[in-house]
Design goal:
Layout (H helix, E strand, L loop, with lengths): L7 E3 L2 H10 L5 E8 L5 H14 L5 E4 L5 E4 L5 H4 E5 L3 H9 L11 E7 L3 E8 L5 H20 L16 H4 L4 H11 L18 E8 L1 H13 L4 H13 L10 E9 L16 E9 L6 H17 L2 H12 L4 H18 L6 E7 L12 E7 L9 E7 L2 E9 L5 H19 L1
Parallel strand pairs: 5-6, 9-11, 11-13
Antiparallel strand pairs: 1-4, 2-7, 2-12, 3-4, 6-7, 8-14, 9-10, 13-14
Helix pairs in contact: 1-12, 2-5, 7-11, 8-13, 9-10, 9-13
């Protein structure tokens, strides 16, 4: 790795917030790729070093100050960025890889693990403090490009990209004060109303559970989406809420919020925002809990609520709220977050459930040439109690639901039950 110690990058408030969250729980985002064969392990490593040269922000550490920034790390060792694991138990190694944290204050912000069982699996892990899921898929695309390029030309290089404006400002500056005011109202103030049953304490057993909706079921889901003029996200969010209700105490007739995310890049599709950035923001979607409700009716209600949130740019409102929170400075927000953490443990303060649809994993992001990719999915950070969330991603005609949680605080059986119930609701819907 070249010496890049003089490189520094501003850390906008979107980075600062995810960095502060990483001091409470793991903020690792993973792209898991499974192959129908084996890769060239040395070429994979060399390709990843080219990615870090091209995107030096990944080879950096977060520097706390009144004006925080990212600082490149000189002389990164091979072990700090790449792990090759020839193993007997590939699933165990995958679990260990996905539950290992990166400290953003030490860095680097990305690592790659090649797990060799019968066939290879690759895990690209990026700290959410530096990038959202869109950026992780972009980094994987660069890795594929470098891997294929090195096969033909040992001197292959990727063009270096020094990050532009990674903040919310270009988005907020593109809309009128009237639209921004409406967006702020649409986002509203977050309030913790309900949360998954959990045991408070330190997370010592991070875990993941996944569930795959395979091609026949997913194609039926897409057909239902088109026929009824709703989105796949509407269907998934509805299934998430319906699966939570039997598990979390609540009162019928009252609205309960589910946090969901939106990529601000969609609000300005012609704006060339840096792909490696934290431009996904979360807002609450209030959903009415009812004693007896037909699932298609719930889908309709969620669809109309989401339409209104999108029409009023609730995501911009979430960005504005984060900007306002940091108006008092980085250290002030850090202390407020520590206070929330204390209240969480001492007062059993709940945290609203979170659902994120990271969307399609394009073939370009997992194309390693002659070694066929058979399966890929995104995995979210491990959410510490009382947090709980599910992330969806799609590759080919398979949709994967993934949840990262603390098994010593939230029962794995409960998590599996929620994922199974989501699947059942969607299966019944599509017949």
């Amino acid at each position: 790795m070249p010496d890049t110690s003089t490189l520094k990058f501003p850390a906008p408030v979107n980075d600062q917030w995810d960095y502060l969250l990483s001091t409470i729980w793991s903020q690792m985002v993973h792209l898991v790729i499974k192959f129908g064969g084996r890769l060239d392990s040395e070429r994979v490593y060399r390709a990843f070093t080219l990615v870090l040269e091209a995107q030096p922000l990944l080879a950096s550490r977060f520097i706390e100050s009144s004006d925080p920034y990212w600082e490149s790390i000189p002389g990164l060792s091979r072990d700090s960025i790449f792990t090759f694991l020839p193993v007997d138990d590939a699933e165990y190694s995958l679990h260990r890889t996905m539950t290992t944290r990166i400290d953003p204050a030490k860095g680097p912000q990305a690592r790659l693990a090649l797990i060799r069982g019968g066939n290879d699996s690759l895990v690209l892990s990026v700290n959410h403090a530096v990038s959202d899921a869109f950026g992780v898929k972009h980094v994987s695309g660069l890795l594929c490009q470098a891997y294929r390029g090195l096969e033909k030309d040992p001197g292959f290089r990727l063009p270096r990209h020094l990050q532009g404006d990674r903040s919310f400002y270009p988005f907020l500056a593109s809309f009128s004060p009237e639209i921004l005011s409406a967006a702020s109202d649409a986002c509203g103030e977050q309030s913790a109303v309900w949360g998954i049953p959990s045991t408070p304490g330190v997370c010592t057993s991070p875990a993941y559970r996944t569930r795959v909706m395979e091609k026949p079921q997913f194609l039926n889901l897409k057909k239902y989406s088109h026929t009824h003029n709703v989105t796949i996200n509407d269907l998934l969010l509805s299934a998430f809420f319906a699966a939570l209700c039997p598990e979390i105490p609540h009162s019928p007739g009252q609205q309960y919020p589910v946090l969901t995310s939106v990529d601000l890049r969609r609000s300005l599709p012609d704006h060339h925002a840096p792909p490696l950035a934290n431009l996904s923001v979360a807002f609450e979607v209030p959903i009415l809990a009812q004693s007896f409700v037909e699932f298609p009716s719930l889908v309709g209600d969620v669809h109309h609520t989401m339409l209104e949130k999108k029409r009023l740019f609730a995501g911009l409102g979430a960005a504005m709220r984060l900007q306002d929170d940091f108006s008092s400075g980085f250290y002030s927000v850090r202390e407020r977050l520590r206070d929330v953490e204390r209240r969480t443990h001492q007062e059993r303060y709940p945290k609203n459930p979170f659902f994120s649809n990271t969307g399609i994993i394009a073939y370009d992001s997992v194309d390693f040439g002659t070694t066929p990719t058979v399966y890929a999915f995104m995995a979210p950070p491990v959410d510490y109690p009382p947090g709980f969330g599910v992330t969806a991603s799609t590759y080919g005609d398979n949709l994967t639901l993934a949840s990262g949680f603390c098994a010593d605080s939230v029962s794995p059986i409960l998590v599996e039950r929620i994922l199974s119930r989501m699947d059942e609701h969607l299966s019944m819907l599509t017949g």
